[in-house]
Amino acid sequence: MSGNAPARRSGEPTFAVAFGGGGARGLAHIHVIETLDELGIKPVAIAGTSIGAIMGAAVAAGMTGRQVHDYARSILMKRAEVISRMWSARPGSLSEMVGGLKVTQFSIERVLHAFLPHQVPKTFEELGIPLQVTATDYYGHHLTVFSEGDLRSALGASAAIPAVFAPVVRDGRTYVDGGMYNPVPFDLLKGKADIVIGIDVVGSPQQTEGRKPTSIDLMFGSTQLLMQSIIAHKVEQCPPDILLRPPVSKYRVLDFLKIDSLMTETASVKDELKRAIERAVEARSAA
Q: Which value, in Å, is the radius of gyration of the alpha carbons in the chain?
């Protein structure tokens, strides 16, 4: 188990948060982190998938919502900065570049090394809040949950979106995006806190008038539908106390440079979360 759980104040419920996967759509998680800060809530446990695992690692490392927000904007609001960091994450050998440079040849671990804030440590054990990170064992055909050892490779495995990044090999196993099996891992937090919050940023395909979906649109859209069916099944089996879905469907998985409009259009989730927490605390008190 990583880190030490924050001390619980007498009489107050504890909270655990599951940050879901969704690529750039996961920037909406920042609103959730900021809201928890405003309410003085520090999770006692965190689980995350893909971009949600990265956001969860930042929180578990002690970063505030404002710090995460400022850091993200300091990079993503500058196209030249993004290009520079991506260039530094390019394949490192000639053999990796045979046939020309392709996005799918990029190592997500290199990309994370180029983009992660320095506050995120190298190991789970250095975190201040217990963190669980999901990944899909490609050849093992099952979900893997990392909670100890090397943090960076676990985050890379969780965020290795097929057709975007190369798989991650860890301990001889090949891993891809954790969202293939568990898009919003709130079930991992059952029994770890009084109130469990799940944040779904998977989104769903949106019809655009006068435009037919491309093969890429269909590929990613079909994956969204698959993930939503997984989430729906899990909600039936083990629902979280709070499940929020910020309005992120109009954004694509790699729309990180659209941070300004995405953050503006998803700001409503802050009030939604405050109301949901108030209802959950009242319901628990009345029970």
A: 18
* CB crowding 91-110: b at 16 or more within 10 Å, else e: beeeeeeeeeeeeeebbbbb
CA distances from 256 to 25, 72, 189, 252, 259 (A): 8, 9, 28, 9, 6
For 155-178, how does the pLDDT look when each residue is reduced to its tens digit (9 = 90+)?
A: 999 999 998 899 999 999 999 999
Tell me which residue of 60, 63, 34 sits closest to 48, measured CA to CA: 60
Answer yes or no: are the C-beta atoms of 160 and 179 closer than 8 Å: no
Round to whole Å and give the CA distance between 130 and 32: 18
Residues contacting 272, CB < 8 A, separation 6+: 244
pLDDT category, 99, cuts 50, 70, 90? very low
Report how far residue 149's alpha carbon sits from residue 64's, in angstroms, rounded to the nearest whole number. Answer: 24
Cβ atoms of 186 and 234 within 8 Å: the answer is yes
Would you give the distance in Å from CA 83 to the centre of its chain? 22
Claim: this prediction has a pTM higher than 0.85: yes
Single-letter residue type at 18: A
Compute the Cα dihedral for 135, 182, 237, 199 and give only its sign: positive
Q: Which residue has the tokens 């007498």?
A: 10
- Residues catalogued as catalytic: 50, 177
Tokens at 229, concatenated: 């069916």
* Digit-coded pLDDT (tens) for 203-232: 998 887 778 888 888 888 899 999 999 999
| DSSP state for residue 190 in the 8-state scheme | T
Contact (CB, 8 A) for 76 and 181 = no
